[in-house]
Model the fold of this input.
Amino acid sequence: MSPERWQQISRIFKSAISLDGEARAAYVVDQCGTDESLRSEVEKLLAFHHRAAEENFIGGRAADDGAALLIEPEDLKPRLEKDQKLGSYLILDQLGTGGMGEVYLAKDSRLERTVALKVLSPDIAEDKHRMQRFRQEAKVASSLNQPNILTIFEFGEVDGLTFLATEFIDGETLRTWLHRDRLKVPETIDVAIQVLTALEAAHEARIVHRDIKPENVMIRHRDRLVKVVDFGLAKVTEKRSRAFTEQGLDTEAITEFKTTPGVLMGTINYMSPEQARAGAVDERTDIWSVGVMLYEMVTGVIPFGGPTTSHTLVQIIEQEPPPLSKATDAPAELQRIIRKAMAKSPDERYQSAKDMAVDLKHLQKQLDHREVATDDTDYTDQGSEKKRVVFVALVAMVAATAAIFAVSVWRASRERPPAAVPGPGPVVAQPERMLTYWLTVQKFRDGRLKEPYVIAGEINFEAGDQIRLNVRTPQAGYLYVLNEGPRTGETVPEFVMLFPSPTANKGSPLLAADQQIQIPQKSWLRFDAQEGVERLWLVFAEKAVPELESVKGFVNDQSKGLITDMTQNKTIHDLLTTRSTTKPNVEKGETLTTLKTPGDLLVYPIRLEHH
Amino acid sequence: MYPLVYDELHRLARRYMSRERKGHTLQTTALINEAYVRLVDQRNVHWANRSHFFAISAQIMRRILIDHARRHAYAKRGGGAQQVSLDEAATVTSTRGAEMLRLDEALQTLATMDPRRSQVVELRYFGGLNNEEIAGVLNVSENTVTRDWNMARAWLYQQLNESAAN
Done:
């Protein structure tokens, strides 16, 4: 097409799209006159304009659309398996995977201790620069022998695999906690104080962490002990008494922030203004990041986060975060502490982790006091100081007793053998079906997928959220997982057979004892815009279930498990409704749910509510 | 200078990977290094203002994605990840790369007839900018950007549909 022709079409198109129906048609005819081919071009283009808008053609972003191109199937291979040995480490379980490699739970046979073994991806192991970073992490963290800093045991290479062995923490990251729940004020303060204690030790050794964020803060389940992890970006700084200009500029941080060992997803939201500006950094950069983290803990949202990295950086450098007072009812003093930690100029922030911790501890004491004082007025007349102290002690004792009681009840309930079935005649060993499941959830918020986390059961979902179902079966048996679509009126719902599928478990429903599977194996189940309640039906049987075996034959790759034959759907529907009348015993833990049912067939629907 | 593309690609790659089962940074690492090298190559460019930077970022993003699309479109693909999805939207298809290439070609053709409209698409689709920002970069009104976008998108969509039919 000649540029002149293009100009002609463009001029008519421009005016035509602001007109409707007949007016538009008349306008086009009028403008094109006798030039039939021009008219046809313009009309076609107008038609495509509507289709493009309707189908949201290139309405997203190229990088998102093209992200799939960044990945190759051969990158998806697993490496170590259970019971396999790597040097003196025996692999016990796989804990997770991230961009850097896999993390396993392993036993060090030399010292009989359990460790977390991070096995690096080969491409990372080949990257000298990154290896240097790991060595640095190992060196830095082992030089900082502090209870709030994750201990690193060994960084080494065996059988061509490079690994980092660290202390194993049975816990979760602060990120996971934040996803699951909002932290209460005392919890927030407690976590922050512990992070600051770790930083105090690091700063004392003139080490700046430079990548403090919820992903790098682990919290042990048992006692809420906080461990700061990932010193891979840490930098040894000069004493601050020297002139600023003598310090290294933090260009490294900004370009390498993205390759931090152990980071699941790169983020710049916790970066300080001086880092964002690629300026000089010192320990006050970590103070900033703690401030941002605290902000998120009390409000539930990050203070700086734009649609793109550049927007975020500009916000960090130039803009004040949304005022805390409007976003939270946290104590004013806590808000003041956060504001001070997040002063744009490092000189206006807390000058040391210790100073900030002192203020937080002070607040912690005040709050303890106030809580008791408030209760106090309910029970006593004006409450003298003395009484108050007694009351504190009493509350503490009651709480401790309650905790001990709770623990022993919990133990007892766990340790008690299954009750024998009462009834006449000899006791026959009752068959029982048992399985454990949990969901991996990835929420879709503000146009992006959040970091995945694990939950025990049902929560409400929104469009774009993604989930995976994980099932572990202590016994061998036949597992079938079906997705029941939202019900429309009286009709039988349509089912999708998620497991077995032609690709998962080689198409077989049979699982070995202690086998763990993920459904779907390689992708996610994503919620679309249609609202309603869906169910994931778990069927776990001692023997193959004939009804489902016959349905299995109808499922192939093309259909993606969707069962379109309504007779088949009816068969499934009938089976599930009649057999789910025996409800399994449901035991919900923090991160997993255990189902138990007497008999040889367990049927259970996981409810997925979708708004 | 902020290596924004570097960061952006990393974010995307990470995010994409996090949806997958296993860690695999091979492509990501290569990709990011590539982005970085390209940015560094631009060092002699004077970063006059943010607009200029956005424009360069969009260009680099486009080049990298197209390079990868080219490799993918021509690579033999067998039995990749099978997807079972409630909405099937997440399906990774081998046609993705080919689509991206066809779009790039069409965009090149558009540039010969109408460079500004082509740039609007580049800034918006590849650069991730909104109309207001594009107006700033190109120093035109936001209305002009909207009109340019409508026309360019319609035309590109037509090209892709017609080339697919042939």
Remarks:
- The radius of gyration of chain B is 17 Å.
- The helical segments of chain B are 4-19, 26-41, 50-74, 95-113, 115-126, 131-138, 142-165.
